What we know:
single chain; 9 strands
Amino acid sequence: MRAITVSQTGVGATAPVPMDQYQNPFNVGLGIVVSGSVTYSVQYSFDNPFTQDYTPSNATWYNHPDLTSKNSNQSGNFAFAVATIRLNVTAGTGTATLTLLQSGVKG
């Protein structure tokens, strides 16, 4: 998978980025770069984004345990399968940019 980048300026959440749940091993590296002043959390969901009734507002979101209520550049990873990942800015007027890179066995 090529790197995917999403940004959020001001309060709100980015569009969810679907992950390849069937990648084995499932590995996602992520980095967040902050410009200005923001507080953000990286969130993930197990809800399938490809079902007809899926909407991000109805999904169940969980905060990444190490990337919650942050306000500076950070990095982290997911070593377990998740369906989608997003960035949720909860305060500030700056911009937070999330870059995701999923690796796996090349077929």
